[in-house]
């Protein structure tokens, strides 16, 4: 199997003038590695001596040591390179003048997981906005979309529901790499910064991560494997209710359930189309932290059997609808705050729509809800087309 070569590898193999001559800041986390598992900050510091001047960390921190959402990280000094580490998930989410002192280019080398609510892409958008205002250069080192670049799924964000888990109207599963998203953000949504995308070689849109030949390093504490990424575009919505999404277990997002869940009734209530490409295996689990900590949850593990047929968003929306239908007294929406939003329901921010949440409450079949966003999804496919770098 021919291995994919990331944007990081391309940069190191042939550093352009902006990398050889300017001062660099690097936004990175544990998944920012080369094929030999060595971290990007070490590789860049060795290949470009004296160029690395700062590190930026996104949500969960530079070492992904902050376990849950809304746990901020602080600033510090990197013990390996000796440069400052500035948190962009703490007292600010934008790079400040102090952080940018002496920096010419912010290099972004982050592994995305192909889902709208995964906050790394929005931290990138803040960096790009700051670059447009302050005049520095942004270089995105591209990496694979681990769940592929062909399929898109879900509604776009309604007006008034933009947030840190969805700033621009893109679907839940967007089917783009982080480099392609940067190009889309910059032009379509009018950021207009000085942007360079360093592309990969060898990546094709139909690839899943296991086909790239690259090592999987968890990009956040609850994304331990490719299987978690496959279900994440749907299972992340459980963060907005009292169904456990499997945090506090060894298979986060693949497992879901609650002490009150009647697994037989839930399974019987799902639309057959929601189960396309997957099997729900009944199981039990006790989370060690998070929702239902220490309590036996009755639920399921999602086993994806056909990645081309599996629609994670559809499945998880249907799970929530069925849970409401069968357990109206026990089911509950999570209350604010959620990711810097203190008034709107977290589920509305995750879904990007109050109407979709109200449709689930009303028991509207998910196939009917899906039909309502097909026109905007088709339009998004047209909008994204000019920014796609890689062939099918």
Please give a structural write-up.
The protein is α/β, with parallel strands linked by helices. The chain folds into two domains: 7-221, Rossmann fold (3-Layer(aba) Sandwich); 226-361, Aspartate Aminotransferase, domain 1 (Alpha-Beta Complex). It has 13 helices and ten strands. The chain has helices at 7-13, 17-21, 40-47, 97-100, 120-134, 178-188, 226-235, 263-269, 312-326, 346-351, 354-361, 366-371, 374-384; strands spanning 24-27, 52-57, 76-77, 84-87, 105-108, 137-141, 194-198, 255-258, 278-285, 297-304. Strands 3-4-2-1-5-6-7 form a seven-stranded mixed sheet, with helices on both faces. A three-stranded antiparallel sheet has the order 8-10-9. The longest helix is centred in the first third of the chain and has 15 residues, at 120-134. The chain is globular and about 65 Å long. The two termini are 17 Å apart. The model has no long low-confidence stretch (mean pLDDT 96).
Write the layout of secondary structure elements.
Elements: H1 7-13, H2 17-21, E1 24-27, H3 40-47, E2 52-57, E3 76-77, E4 84-87, H4 97-100, E5 105-108, H5 120-134, E6 137-141, H6 178-188, E7 194-198, H7 226-235, E8 255-258, H8 263-269, E9 278-285, E10 297-304, H9 312-326, H10 346-351, H11 354-361, H12 366-371, H13 374-384
Parallel strand pairs: 1-2, 1-5, 2-4, 5-6, 6-7
Antiparallel strand pairs: 3-4, 8-10, 9-10
Helix pairs in contact: 5-6, 7-9, 8-9
